[in-house]
Amino acid sequence: ETGESLNFIEHIVEEDLENGYSVSDLRFRFPPEPNGYLHIGHASSICLNFGLGLRYNAPVNLRFDDTNPIKEEQAYVDAIKRDVEWLGYTWDTERYASDNFQQLYEWAIKLVKEGKAYVDSQSSEEMAAQKGTPYEPGSNSPHRNRSVEKNLELFEGMKDGKFEEGAHVLRAKIDMASQNMLMRDPIMYRVLHKPHHRTNTDWCIYPMYDWTHGESDYIEQISHSLCTLEFAMHRELYDWFLDQVVDSEKIRPKQREFARRNLSHTVVSKRKLLQLVEQKVVYGWDDPRMPTISGLRRRGYTPEAIRNFADTIGIAKRENLIDVSLLEFHAREHLNKIAPRVMAVLDPVKVVITNYPEGEEEWLETENNPEDESAGTRQIPFSKEIYIERADFKEEANRKFFRLKLGGEVRLKSAYIIKAESCSKDSEGNIVEIQCSYDPKSKSGSGTEESMRKVKGTLHWVSVKHAIEAEVRLYDRLFSDESPDTHKDKDYMDFINPDALEVITAYLEPSLRKTKIGDRVQFQRLGYFCVDPDSSQEKLVFNRTVGLRDTWAK
Ligand code: ATP
Ligand code: MG
Ligand code: MG
């Protein structure tokens, strides 16, 4: 034993292995409905299912739960596949619930013939009125005792397109007095005259989730069908439907439930995320403000960061709220190891180095990543005029301000020690230029006594004449409230943070000219940034993935 602790789902699997299952019986699936893009909540389910696959060397299917043609699209299927792959997982077989429509139909006929399903021809309001309450039994439909012949005729008519939507449904004949409301003759099929993204117009009856999911698990021989807690009450129905078809020679799938994961300051529901896209609150599903996998990718998150986050929070039996700062922590932790360090100034003020020779420039060596020696070094240009951050200069400041102030010294990262001598202001009193002197013997790495001299602050900078201008998109939380979709009297849309995106122009060191879309870097002292797909030859666009705690520049 490695001493690692198992989660409760792994304990269930381990127990099954002790009680007769063999490892080769194990098979899992990740079952998204292609009605939107995957979000950070799905990452938990993906890591759980594929993690079990890796642990037991068992196959994991990617199952599209595509039973509702009104909301589903091929584009969502494509996006889901891209995201699961990007997260680093490989599925065994790509399956669709719609692959099983014919088998499900045949099994439904079998149920009708056995007197276990019937066609109901009431309106949905009438059926709802007969459902009863959790405390009172429901009442039987007047169609509940239709003959098998009549049921077969009507059900075939439904399938053959003879009826309008809503005219008839097929229901399982279970128990209108069951303690479990879901067992009160649940609907198995409805008429929908809608083309399906895969089966096109082959079918105009579509099976309901409960009838489809367990049977699909059975067809695929999934041993453990893991879903979120809202399906706990469905388990009895899942089992009832399986009882109708299972063959004792085969694996009988088990549904087990775990808690949905919620992230603070956002919503994790495809329906709600779709609303943000449709109402143009964001630019699309992959907007970096979105908690979607594609939004996080575009924002600069790595698959490792998302997987580490999901593994750290693990799975739970109860719902709770995970603070988004934990996700950000994992982004920083991984990006710190892999992101090359570069210099960029987001809010520039010009520094003129008065004793630096006019028209001269020099190229200084600087390390690409202090966390990774193999990342090597690069050259950055230095000249008489540079930009530093406006916030890094104050005319006067107390002793705790380890940046630049009049009469004070700082080191320019990988360059020289400078001293602020004076500054100029515009008519409104804004500082427009700082005049500094530099110590020519203090060049970093030159080995001189002056180069080793300790000064309190180190600032990042870029040479004015070499700097490249870029658009930088700074992100904040999309919702001002921690838990925007849990308020009784308010809608989550009421909590949209209008300042979640700020677009600025920044000045970058010239080495960044050769970055490509998706490249991730650390702008020193500022945070981690990623090249956005909106970038062009003419203009680079960067997204701020996550800020940085000031480490070397205090
Ligand atoms: P949504 O409300 O976002 O559409 P869903 O559960 O309907 O969520 P599915 O496409 O059915 O979305 O989800 C695929 C799998 O991912 C399911 O097993 C589901 O239970 C799981 N899942 C979805 N959201 C979360 C979440 N927030 N935390 C953990 N697992 C989740
Ligand atoms: Mg679902
Ligand atoms: Mg859903």
Can you describe this structure?
Helix content is 26%, strand content 24%. Helix 2 packs across helix 11, helix 7 crosses helix 8 and helix 11 crosses helix 12. The two termini are 45 Å apart. 40% of the residues are buried. The C terminus is likely disordered. The structure holds adenosine-5'-triphosphate and magnesium ion (MG) (2 copies).
Condensed summary:
Residues 26-336 form the Glutamyl/glutaminyl-tRNA synthetase class Ib catalytic domain. The protein is α/β, with parallel strands linked by helices and 554 residues long. The model is unreliable at 550-554 (pLDDT under 50).
Low-confidence stretches: 550-554
What's the CATH topology name of the domain at 8-258?
Answer: Rossmann fold
The total count of helices amounts to: 13
Topology, number of strands: 29
Largest sheet: 7 strands, mixed
Strand residue percentage: 15-25%
Quaternary class: single chain
CATH architecture of the domain at 8-258: 3-Layer(aba) Sandwich
| Sheet with the most strands: spatial strand order | 12-27-28-29-25-26-13
Question: What tags apply to this protein structure?
Answer:
554 residues, alpha/beta, Rossmann fold, 7-stranded mixed beta sheet, 29 strands, binds adenosine-5'-triphosphate, binds magnesium ion, ATP binding
